[in-house]
Design a protein that fits this description.
Strand content of chain A: 15-25%
Number of domains of chain A: 3
Number of helices of chain A: 10
CATH topology of the largest domain in chain A: D-Maltodextrin-Binding Protein, domain 2
Oligomer: homodimer
CATH class of the largest domain in chain A: Alpha Beta
Helix content of chain A: 40-55%
Shape of chain A: extended
Structural class of chain A: alpha/beta
DNA sequence: TCATTACGAAAGCTTAAAGCTATCAAGTCA
DNA sequence: TGACTTGATAGCTTTAAGCTTTCGTAATGA
């Protein structure tokens, strides 16, 4: 079973005929036929019902196709990755950053490391909630920076910073006296603006939310902030993002009953325990230990 | 880039030398050398530092190895899958079953379908929480049966049954008058016995739990039941599993304040929306629609 | 209905590359 | 130092992947 054979098989499935698959692959029809046939013989299976004019996928063929397609996608990804490794002088340091942490205190540490490794290729991917650690588990990132959300025994971490989360709202949306707690009831009719989880499998859609109540989802903190300023709802947000708005009065800090309205969340540098790190990743880890 | 070349590269990394890799692969040393070299030339990269006696992985080599290894693992899985397809007469119907649903009412429906397709190969995988849908997303299962936990717009579902969840405890653990609500405080000192999520990425570790309080994790409902009967804690559990124990008095149904102590959870047959189903999966779906 | 077009299988040939043997220089270790 | 191991190289053999051509058959269309 070679990837070329799989490619031929997949192309026939998607094109619907051997001939068009051949032209798509810049090959001739007999070689495509041979490739598929050798696959079929290898497994002693029949992927197509050839009794009709056009080949028709059998159940086995359909089942095999779904898996083969995924394998080939991964193969092309590896191909790209290899070329990317070659174009960069040294393999990049891939960091999965919780969007929450995109603040000076954290970026300063990355900059500090960069100063010591000026030739380094940095690749920062911002993710939300479970997406942060998912990048680590999928080995798409060497290190992650974020809160300990969804952590388990496979991870190792060190605290590197703290972030103050507060709950805010546009001041004219509610009749508020400063310093007075807001009841959940008062917020029920206003949308709670949440960040969509970028994790693919089991998103954390229920941390720090109120039961009942309308929920709106956005993709990043900029959009969250924009909706808040436009008085479309209320939300928890890192304080540093809305600092200006708090000062000029366009947003107001509130305290909601039975809700984690304000908290200081520690941020961690996280890595997989049993994964061999690149020398850059090791150096970054060490640097964070010392810098602290 | 062929899988054979990757296999050679990976084997050299793991064996630590070209020669031992060659014997492991039942090839000669020059052909392994050639395979690795052609990989390196393909990407214009250097995977090994050959200036020493033993080849030493470069940073690029290490980075590439991690990804290549995963690709090959998937390739061998596809290989196995193909042979499995061949050994079974027809591709199996793979169902991801929430362990919660392993009860007569649900199994009866599967049996009903089996009676109509006596030659069918069934492959049932019981999972917990996010693991149920993860199997669907990874295309390891054609259909899933479980509650709507972690559902999103990519899924399609039909209700097929209902399950009564209750909260129970060994009677002598608490001083209880029947019919009286238990305060959370009374349970704080007793472990809450939970099922571990089988999902790999972002487990649902916080549905129907009390804040604070000790938590124990088990892998299946049999173990949960065993711990309950041994008076090691309290838990939510499907009623049908502990029916006997409720009758003979070895377990007692309780009602906890501000906790979802008792509820009827609907169970659904779930599939991915945009995934081409096998004819068996389609038939099962139709059967469930009609049977209902 | 019959010519036209499109499709897939089979046979025979060409060629690229995957693999082997043999050999050599360099490194390791007693 | 000498026995041994390791990886690279050269030259040869063999495998299989690909091409061209041909043929029978199914769909299309005037």
């Amino acid at each position: 079973m070679t990837n070329e054979q799989l490619k031929a098989f997949i192309c026939v499935v998607e094109q619907g005929s051997f001939r068009s698959a051949a032209t798509a692959l810049h090959k001739t029809q007999p070689s495509v036929s041979a490739a598929v046939k050798s696959l079929e013989q290898h497994f002693n299976l029949c992927f197509f019902d050839r009794s009709h004019y056009r080949p028709q996928l059998t159940d086995e063929g359909r089942a095999f196709y779904a898996q083969a397609k995924k394998l080939l996608q991964q193969a092309t990804q590896l191909e790209m990755y290899g070329h990317q490794l070659a174009s960069a002088v040294t393999p990049p340091l891939a960091i999965s950053l919780s969007a929450m942490c995109a603040l000076p205190a954290v970026l300063e540490k990355i900059k500090h490391f960069w100063n010591q490794h000026p030739q380094m290729h940095l690749q920062v991917n911002t993710e939300h909630l479970s997406g942060v650690l998912e990048q680590l588990k999928l080995e798409k990132a060497d290190l992650a920076i974020g809160p300990l959300l969804g952590i388990d025994h496979n991870f190792e971490y060190i605290e590197i910073s703290q972030i103050k989360m507060i709950t805010v709202i546009a001041p004219h949306l509610l009749d508020i006296s400063p310093g007075i707690q807001i009841s959940q009831q008062q917020l029920r009719n206003l949308p709670h603006i949440l960040i969509s989880d970028t994790g693919s499998v089991a998103p954390f859609d229920h941390v720090n939310v109120l039961l009942g109540g309308q929920r709106w989802y956005v993709n990043d903190y900029q959009m969250k902030k924009a909706l808040l300023i436009s008085a479309m709802g209320w939300a928890r947000i890192p304080e540093h993002i809305v600092q200006h708005q708090l000062e000029d009065g366009s947003l107001l800090k509130i305290d909601v009953e039975n809700f984690n309205s304000q908290s200081t969340v520690p941020m961690y540098l996280i890595k997989l325990k049993n994964s061999p790190s690149s020398s850059l990743a090791k150096a970054f880890w060490q640097d964070m230990l010392n810098y602290k």
